[in-house]
Structures are given as structure tokens and as C-alpha cells.
């Protein structure tokens, strides 16, 4: 059995494993899986639920909550089907389906999977206690368990929401993302502070479920994406009956004696709601996990190299022993990207442990290169926004000369068939010198599935002239690629 060589050393319970993973979110699970698949003995430490934020409070519940409304709206946009939709969204059934998808917040499935993979689950709060040493305090206290890693420790502790320093906000018992995704009832009035992806998605959910939603956006919606994406999402929220206030900032928040939340904005206006959701980004979960022992700052994201090794903790000689993977690095706060990093980290730990070759070159097996070039970012609002790579503005800021190709989906037959009055838009950002796609954004119903094509084009560095030979089926949404290429211009024959 892995890690079975437990024994006492003085008063301490000490266990030995090849690799210790701190945090059993999607990322920790994948690091453990890859290392175990290479034959290493692996322990994973978890103080809450195996499966982490994504499975119980983030991706899975938010996407299931969004799905019921988007299916209903999709049917209503198609004559023939629309006539058959005679009722309204069933709120109780929507919430119940979400509860089912999160297994009523039981992690039995995750525990079973770890056991089947031969990964040892150690329940409790883990912290670094020196080189290759983790101390775990079991749930409810009790005797600490010391785990010595023969080779590596991977910190995969994730991130927490940021609560900004707005007077009265913390005391007003605001909702954080977990409260929104696990809600068992719908507040009559919900205010949302923020204009990022959580605000867009949860605003869409609660407006669909019948709440009076007010989204308070400090600048513009989805500011890190192409401008037309944020504008479409604002229009979509408004079409669902939500109020979106752009360019406003809360000055003070108060929960009154009768339980209402009053938000005073910087323009002097007052918003009154039953709950206020704070959706203001994430901070690293590095408090209370002993990062000080390797000279890192608690609360800060952990900087890593391309193999996810913590360079500042690397020994002068020999293989690195400390890795950080997923949200805790701040590189790209998405489950898919964290799991991508996890595959590289788990494999490189195994390679270094077993003396096998390490390939950390650009796009090498053990390098998380795509974190810098091709991170898919999908906002499941209505319309959906699916983007990857650089926006035109970000490319220009980084000094790359680019051209863009823009088209409306009204030029795509498949879109018109999918839904009457289909609205949407797409943009390619093309590196002018290398003639390859370096960014793409799609906005519209069902565009989430289009972004993988762009991701492949970017990672494969496919010349634009070659993309003309990747023929999209007719009549699909993918035909937007042909329209984008036409907008860019048909290449001339090379003599
Ligand atoms: C509302 C919302 C919706 C989202 N939707 C999507 C989406 O649709 N798609 C997407 O790709 N991303 C989405 N994300 C982001 C996604 O949830 C994260 O990127 C992902 O969960 C990161 O995985 P992780 O394993 O790094 O961290 P986490 O999932 O946070 O897992 C970390 C684990 O470590 C455990 N842990 C922490 N500290 C300790 C300790 N000291 N000892 C023991 N255990 C510890 C935690 O309990 C947790 O289980 C969403 C985020 C939010 C907030
Ligand atoms: N579909 C998905 O993949 C998905 C869904 C949800 C969350 N996520 C992940 O979770 C992360 C967190 O999402 P998020 O929406 O909380 O963060 P975000 O970074 O996307 O947006 C934060 C928003 O809060 C605003 N803000 C920050 N400080 C503020 C203040 N003091 N007052 C008013 N507004 C303020 C910002 O201007 C911005 O609009 C995302 O970056 C993403 O990586 C992904």
C-alpha cells in the first residue's frame, strides 16, 4: 500500500510518500493522478471536499444553474418549438438539478475515485513545515500527522474571493460566489458588485430565476475582453430585465435593521436589495499554509517556472521539491488551465523523480506554455462569450503588429437556422508578421464550442493561408471561420 510505512518518531505520527499534494481540487487531483500513474506513492491532503471549488461551488453549480434558462430561451427562439413552450422556468427544478450535480455537497464520488487510483487521502488542514515536510491537523483537531515527501510537495490550495475595502461591506454579510452558486432560494432583489465573469454569469442566473438584479460595474463589463463582448453581455442582461449601471462604484454599504442592504454609490444614488453579491476577483489561498518557511508571502500568489516548480524554493543542487499549481499561482484562474498545468507538473515530478528526460522547452511536454498564449475564457452568459489568446488591444500593448477580421453572425447560415434573429459577432486577431491567429473572440448563442478551433489554430501556429483548407461544415456556426477568412482576404497564388 502506498505510504504504508507509518511509524512514530518521538510523539509524532510520521508518514512517508513520494509526493504530497496539498489540496484536492481539480488541480490537486490531476497532479496526484499523473504522479501516481507513473508509479509514485502519492498522498493528497484535503480539509474540505474532494473536488474543490469547481465541483461544489464554482464551475459545476454555476453552469447547471445557467443551463435551464439557456435551454428555455433557445427553444423560444425557434418557431415551432416556441409554441410548445407554454410555461415559465421551474425555479425549484432548476435548483434541484444543481443540487444533484453537486451531489448535495457530498464528496463520496471523489473519495471513491482517489481510492480507485491508489492515491491516499489524508483529511485535514495541511501546512508546509520545512523542506519536503507537511503537517496535517485532522478535522476537529486531534493529533497532527507529519507527512514527509521523499521527492516533492505540490501546493494546489486554490483561491478565495476578494472582498474590497468598501465601508460597511464586510459587516453587511455580503454574498460571495459560494452563496450565489449554492443558494436554495431566490432573493427578491439582488445587487451585484463587479463587472467580471462572476457578475455576468450570476447576474444572468438570478435575473432568469426571477430576481430583480442590479449589476454595479466600476468601469465597463468584461473589461479584459474585446469591448463588443462586454457590450453584448450588458444588452443581454438588460433584455432579461436586469439593471446594469456602468461606471459606478459603491461608496458605503449597510445592512439595515429590517435586513435590507443599502448601497450608496459614488454618484449619490442608493440601491436597495435583499442580498448583495461581491464578485471582485480572487486572491491566493496561501494564508495559514506555512509558505513563510520557504520565504514566500502569505496571501500572495505563488510564482512558478514553466514546469510549475517554485524557483525560490529550489535547492542549489538537485531537483526542485516544491511545486505550485492552479489558481494558487495566479497564472490563469480556470479549471481547464489548472488541470493542464497539473498534467505538466505531475509528469515532470515523475520524470525528475525517476531520472527520465525533462522537456521544458516552449510547448514541451512538461511546460505550461499555453498559459501565455492560448487560455480559453468562456463566459456562459446570454449571449455567450468565448475568447482565447490576445485581444486586439492587448496585442498592440505588447508591441505585436496585428490586423483584425470582424464579422457578424448574421452572415452565417447555421446561426440563422439555430435561432431566429440570432445576434452575435466574431473577431480574429492576426499577427501581421507571422500571419497566424493569436486571438479570437466569439459572441452569441452556443459559441462556447467554437473556441477550441481557435485554440488549436493558435497553439498549432497554423498559417492563415492554410486555414482556408480547414473547411467548416454547412450550415453550422463554425462557418463563421470562413466568413472571418473572407473578411481578412483570400490569399493570392504564389508564383
Ligand atoms: C463562481 C465561479 C464559477 C467558475 N466557473 C468556472 C468555469 O465554468 N470554468 C472554469 O474553467 N473555471 C471556473 N471557475 C474557476 C475555477 O473554479 C477554479 O479555477 C478552479 O476551481 C481552480 O482549481 P484549484 O484546484 O486550483 O483550486 P480549488 O478548486 O479552490 O481547490 C483547492 C482545494 O484545496 C483545498 N485546500 C486549500 N487549502 C488547504 C489546506 N491548507 N489543507 C488542505 N486542503 C486545502 C480546498 O479545500 C480545495 O478543495 C469558476 C470560479 C468561480 C468562483
Ligand atoms: N466561466 C468561467 O470560466 C468562470 C466563471 C466564473 C469565474 N471564473 C474565474 O473566477 C475568477 C473570478 O471572477 P470574478 O468575476 O470575481 O473576477 P473578475 O476579475 O473577472 O472581475 C472582477 C470585477 O470586479 C471589479 N472590481 C474589483 N474591485 C472592485 C471594487 N473595489 N469595487 C467595484 N468593483 C470592483 C472589477 O472591475 C471587475 O469588473 C475569474 O477571473 C475567472 O478566472 C471563471
From TrEMBL:
<dbReference type="Pfam" id="PF02852">
    <property type="entry name" value="Pyr_redox_dim"/>
</dbReference>
<dbReference type="InterPro" id="IPR023753">
    <property type="entry name" value="FAD/NAD-binding_dom"/>
</dbReference>
<protein>
    <submittedName>
        <fullName>Dihydrolipoamide dehydrogenase</fullName>
        <ecNumber>1.8.1.4</ecNumber>
    </submittedName>
</protein>
<dbReference type="InterPro" id="IPR050151">
    <property type="entry name" value="Class-I_Pyr_Nuc-Dis_Oxidored"/>
</dbReference>
<feature type="domain" description="FAD/NAD(P)-binding">
    <location>
        <begin position="17"/>
        <end position="333"/>
    </location>
</feature>
<dbReference type="GO" id="GO:0004148">
    <property type="term" value="F:dihydrolipoyl dehydrogenase (NADH) activity"/>
</dbReference>
<dbReference type="InterPro" id="IPR036188">
    <property type="entry name" value="FAD/NAD-bd_sf"/>
</dbReference>
<feature type="domain" description="Pyridine nucleotide-disulphide oxidoreductase dimerisation">
    <location>
        <begin position="375"/>
        <end position="481"/>
    </location>
</feature>
<dbReference type="InterPro" id="IPR004099">
    <property type="entry name" value="Pyr_nucl-diS_OxRdtase_dimer"/>
</dbReference>
<keyword id="KW-0285">Flavoprotein</keyword>
<dbReference type="InterPro" id="IPR016156">
    <property type="entry name" value="FAD/NAD-linked_Rdtase_dimer_sf"/>
</dbReference>
<keyword id="KW-0520">NAD</keyword>
<keyword id="KW-0560">Oxidoreductase</keyword>
<dbReference type="InterPro" id="IPR001100">
    <property type="entry name" value="Pyr_nuc-diS_OxRdtase"/>
</dbReference>
<dbReference type="Pfam" id="PF07992">
    <property type="entry name" value="Pyr_redox_2"/>
</dbReference>
<keyword id="KW-0274">FAD</keyword>
<comment type="similarity">
    <text>Belongs to the class-I pyridine nucleotide-disulfide oxidoreductase family.</text>
</comment>
Amino acid at each position: 500500500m502506498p505510504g504504508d510505512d507509518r511509524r512514530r518518531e518521538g510523539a509524532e505520527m510520521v508518514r512517508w510518500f513520494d509526493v504530497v499534494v496539498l489540496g484536492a481540487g481539480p488541480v490537486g487531483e490531476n497532479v496526484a493522478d499523473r504522479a501516481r500513474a507513473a508509479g509514485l506513492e502519492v498522498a493528497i491532503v484535503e480539509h474540505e471536499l474532494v473536488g474543490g471549488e469547481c465541483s461544489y461551488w464554482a464551475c459545476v453549480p454555476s453552469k447547471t444553474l445557467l443551463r435551464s434558462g439557456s435551454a428555455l430561451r433557445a427553444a423560444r427562439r425557434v418557431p415551432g418549438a416556441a409554441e410548445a413552450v407554454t410555461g415559465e422556468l421551474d425555479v425549484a427544478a432548476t435548483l434541484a438539478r444543481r443540487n444533484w450535480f453537486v451531489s448535495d455537497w457530498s464528496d463520496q464520488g471523489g473519495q471513491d475515485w482517489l481510492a480507485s487510483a491508489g492515491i491516499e487521502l489524508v483529511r485535514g488542514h495541511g501546512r508546509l513545515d520545512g523542506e519536503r515536510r507537511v503537517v496535517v491537523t485532522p478535522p476537529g483537531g486531534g493529533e497532527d500527522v507529519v507527512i514527509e515527501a521523499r521527492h516533492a510537495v505540490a501546493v494546489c490550495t486554490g483561491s478565495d474571493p476578494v472582498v474590497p475595502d468598501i465601508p460597511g461591506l464586510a459587516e453587511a454579510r455580503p454574498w460571495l460566489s459560494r452563496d450565489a452558486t449554492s443558494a436554495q432560494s431566490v432573493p427578491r432583489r439582488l445587487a451585484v458588485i463587479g463587472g467580471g465573469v462572476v457578475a455576468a454569469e450570476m447576474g444572468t442566473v438570478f435575473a432568469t430565476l426571477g430576481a430583480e438584479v442590479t449589476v454595479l460595474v466600476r468601469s465597463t463589463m468584461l473589461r479584459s475582453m474585446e469591448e463588443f463582448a462586454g457590450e453584448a453581455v450588458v444588452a443581454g442582461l438588460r433584455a432579461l430585465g436586469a439593471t446594469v449601471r456602468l461606471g459606478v462604484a459603491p461608496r458605503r454599504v449597510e445592512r439595515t435593521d429590517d435586513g435590507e442592504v443599502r448601497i450608496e454609490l459614488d454618484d449619490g444614488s442608493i440601491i436597495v436589495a435583499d442580498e448583495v453579491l461581491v464578485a471582485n476577483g480572487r486572491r491566493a489561498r496561501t494564508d495559514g499554509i506555512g509558505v513563510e518557511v520557504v520565504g514566500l508571502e502569505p496571501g500572495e500568489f505563488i510564482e512558478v517556472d514553466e514546469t510549475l516548480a517554485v524557483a525560490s524554493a529550489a535547492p542549489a543542487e538537485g531537483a526542485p521539491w516544491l511545486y505550485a499549481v492552479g489558481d494558487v499561482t495566479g497564472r490563469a484562474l480556470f479549471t481547464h488551465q489548472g488541470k493542464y498545468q497539473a498534467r505538466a507538473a505531475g509528469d515532470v515530478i515523475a520524470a525528475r523523480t525517476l531520472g527520465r528526460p525533462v522537456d521544458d522547452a516552449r510547448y514541451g511536454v512538461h511546460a505550461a506554455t499555453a498559459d501565455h498564449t492560448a487560455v480559453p475564457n468562456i463566459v456562459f452568459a446570454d449571449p455567450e462569450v468565448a475568447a482565447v489568446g490576445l485581444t486586439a488591444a492587448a496585442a498592440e500593448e505588447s508591441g505585436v503588429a496585428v490586423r483584425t477580421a470582424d464579422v457578424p453572425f448574421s452572415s452565417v447560415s447555421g446561426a440563422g437556422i439555430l435561432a431566429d434573429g440570432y445576434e452575435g459577432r466574431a473577431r480574429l486577431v492576426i499577427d501581421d508578421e507571422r500571419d497566424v491567429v493569436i486571438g479570437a473572440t466569439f459572441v452569441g448563442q452556443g459559441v462556447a464550442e467554437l473556441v477550441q478551433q481557435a485554440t488549436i489554430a493558435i497553439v498549432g501556429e497554423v498559417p492563415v493561408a492554410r486555414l482556408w483548407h480547414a473547411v467548416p461544415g454547412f450550415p453550422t456556426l463554425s462557418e463563421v471561420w470562413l466568413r472571418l477568412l473572407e473578411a481578412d482576404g483570400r490569399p493570392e497564388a504564389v508564383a
